[in-house]
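Re: that backbone. Tokens:
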């Protein structure tokens, strides 16, 4: 294993951001290669501790000569967001300087060629970071971007061009659901990882062996040793299943039995009023059309001080909001519906 330190110049004199990269050299140049990163949204830690639990497994495989394809690991992908605090509260989702989501505005290249990356020498530290993350991932057969939701099930975002080829990956990781998407108009990291392959020859795209996904490891508070070990085992099983690591003791993944939901079926359920949320449902619950999902207490103690929110269609609860205070119009939860939503979204679901 080789460790290097990446340095991203800040936007003022004397400021530099650093983050480590770990590389495992493969023994077979024809084997698939992988790039794993976590905490692009810097406060989302389930992926960080999963990588921490995975590293000894990769180190052991390397020592025994079982790493066939090169592996790049970026445990803390966003040193800018990691350093952001406002009045004692960590702010890792948006760049406080630009107000841009750290998982937006990645360059969507026309082909997998780093020479096509834009010149960001004067573009701001966050753009320099995004360029570098794309450089690190470009050309790898497997690119995993580890995130988490507020409170939720474990699920993957997968581009339609990679499904059902990636069903073995979903099974290997043991996730509960897969969301299929087809359009990226905001420049997510996952989009930057898969869109360059959409209009190139099949011999370059190689969708049968390509993996690019955003991994949502449940919720913000799901950071503990048992979950980290389980998630690490899933990552390791994926690498074995796809031939990056050789390990006969790990059986290849079977069929994926979780839910597969088009992004257009997701109901985001905005709150009609501001107030306190009383949920009737939790992630994983199955609901029917008309079931009450939550009550908003907007005028406590007053007549008609509560407003109820009902399911617009049948489906299951994928995620819900972690904080129990909400403003009018803010999303309460993600309901994975059985049919297309009347408010269908083709791009990203939220800011």
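Recovered sequence:
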């Amino acid at each position: 294993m080789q460790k290097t330190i990446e340095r991203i110049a800040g936007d003022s004199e004397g400021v530099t951001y650093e983050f480590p990269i770990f590389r495992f050299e493969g023994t077979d140049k024809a084997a698939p290669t992988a790039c794993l990163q976590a905490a692009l949204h810097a406060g989302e830690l389930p992926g960080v501790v999963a990588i921490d639990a995975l590293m000894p497994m990769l180190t052991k495989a390397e020592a025994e000569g079982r790493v066939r394809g090169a592996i790049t690991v970026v445990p803390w992908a966003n040193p800018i967001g990691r350093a952001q605090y406002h009045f004692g509260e960590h702010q890792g989702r948006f760049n406080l300087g630009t107000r841009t989501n750290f998982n937006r505005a990645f360059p969507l290249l026309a082909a997998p060629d780093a020479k096509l990356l834009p010149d960001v020498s004067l573009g701001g530290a966050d753009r320099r970071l995004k360029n570098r993350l794309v450089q690190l991932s470009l050309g790898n057969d497997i690119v995993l971007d580890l995130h988490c939701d507020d409170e939720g099930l474990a699920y993957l975002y997968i581009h339609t061009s990679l499904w059902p080829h990636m069903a073995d990956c979903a099974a290997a990781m043991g996730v509960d659901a897969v969301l299929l998407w087809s359009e990226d108009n905001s420049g997510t990291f996952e989009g930057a990882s898969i869109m360059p392959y959409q209009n190139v020859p099949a011999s370059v795209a190689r969708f049968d062996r390509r993996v690019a996904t955003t991994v949502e490891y449940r919720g913000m508070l799901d950071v503990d040793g048992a979950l980290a070990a389980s998630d690490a085992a899933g990552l390791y099983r994926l690498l074995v299943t796809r031939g990056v690591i050789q390990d006969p003791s790990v059986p290849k993944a079977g069929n994926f039995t979780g839910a597969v939901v088009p992004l257009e079926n997701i109901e985001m359920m905005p709150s009609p009023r501001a107030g306190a949320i009383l949920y009737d449902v939790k992630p994983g619950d199955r609901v029917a059309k008309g079931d009450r999902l939550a009550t908003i207490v907007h005028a406590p103690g007053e007549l008609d001080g509560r407003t109820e929110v009902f399911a617009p269609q049948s489906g299951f609860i994928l995620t819900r909001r972690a904080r129990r205070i909400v403003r009018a119009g803010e999303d309460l939860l993600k309901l994975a519906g059985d049919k297309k939503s009347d408010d269908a979204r083709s791009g990203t679901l939220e800011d």
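The chain has two domains: 2-257, 264-337. The longest strand covers residues 16-24.
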